[in-house]
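Morning, I've got a small favour to ask if you have a moment. I'm working through a protein record and want to make sense of it properly. The fold is given in discrete form, as structure tokens running alongside the sequence. Can you walk me through what the tokens say about the fold? Thanks so much in advance, here it is:
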Amino acid sequence: MSDKTEHQCQYLHGCVVWKKFNTNSKFFWMNSYCRGPKQDQCVRKQQKIQGAFISDELLPNGTFLSVDGAATGVECENLKNCAVWKKFYTDNKMFWIKAYCQGPKRSECARKQRLSQGLSVAEDLLPNGETL
């Protein structure tokens, strides 16, 4: 058995959320949560262990692919010039935009917080504070 397989989440192969991603975007999530240091922080894994319902839209960090009501008509003023989106395909960035740029996590965006403090913002900084 390879070292990578030994350290991956035991629920990885049955995790239906990955069917909604292409290979490029799955890589980020899987390396952090399924095969990486955040396995024990995975909300999907925690709910599986507890026998709780797991939405197909639930991401490992507890956010959702589709954020109901996120398109409020008010979006972040930085959205059009936000450099991190150049690193994503259109379909892969929509869950981030719905949650952080147009949705309930607007005030939590690490990029926006750094800008408002007059700090530089790395192009690969994600809205949740992690980097690509």
